[in-house]
Amino acid sequence: MPGIENDPRFDGFRRNWLNILQINPSLKVLSNNSASDTCASCVAAFADICLYSPRLADKYQPLDSLRQLMDAYVDGLPAYGFPATSPSTSPAFPPHQDPIFLDAYPNLLVGATDYVYAATIKSGSKRIIRHSQMGPKLCWRPTATAMDSLNTN
């Protein structure tokens, strides 16, 4: 953002901007921290940071990590926030039996929207668009709108 380079009010903002982008090395996707499972409820936060982050290296931009995460969800990656799923291989952490978190599917939709908004339409983003609406493994939009108890869709 032009004009904030020397403004001390933005020191923490500049210093901590990329802290949210932590990759779990076992899962090879963005996670809420580098030692935990991926969490569907964090996708919107990842997406918003990726959307506004510049290219960080010649061949890497944060949108690459967002696309990798969204592709993994399209392929059926389990995530915290979905019932009876856990990508962790540790027997110490059995899959939870809670109902789906109300913000899980909306977060996936925000992630897909941010990625498509920022990316040139190419095969990867078309795949995410197709699955976010009517995919065989994940039906994000219909499931998210069905959970709308006020029927505002």
Characteristics:
153 residues, two-stranded antiparallel ribbon, 4% strand
Our count of helices gives: 6
Unreliable residue runs: 134-138
The fraction of residues assigned to DSSP E strands is: under 5%
For the largest beta-sheet, the strand count, sense and barrel status come to: 2 strands, antiparallel
Alpha-carbon Rg, integer: 17 Å
Count the strands?
Answer: 2
Distance between the termini: 35 Å
Order of helices and strands: HEEHHHHH
Q: Provide the helix percentage.
A: 40-55%
The outline comes out as globular
Estimated structural class = mainly alpha
Overall pLDDT metric:
75
Strand order of the largest sheet: 1-2
Give a structural overview.
By secondary structure, this protein is mainly alpha-helical. The protein contains 6 helices and 2 strands. It has helices spanning 11-16, 43-52, 62-74, 104-118, 123-134, 140-146, and strands spanning 22-24, 29-31. The chain has a two-stranded antiparallel ribbon. Helix 2 packs parallel to helix 4 (104-118), helix 3 (62-74) crosses helix 4 (104-118) and helix 4 (104-118) runs antiparallel to helix 5 (123-134). Mean pLDDT is 75; it is low at 134-138.
Task: Tell me the layout of helices and strands.
Layout: H1 11-16, E1 22-24, E2 29-31, H2 43-52, H3 62-74, H4 104-118, H5 123-134, H6 140-146
Antiparallel strand pairs: 1-2
Helix pairs in contact: 2-3, 2-4, 3-4, 3-5, 4-5, 4-6
Brief summary of the model shown:
By secondary structure, this protein is mostly helical. It is built from six helices and two strands.
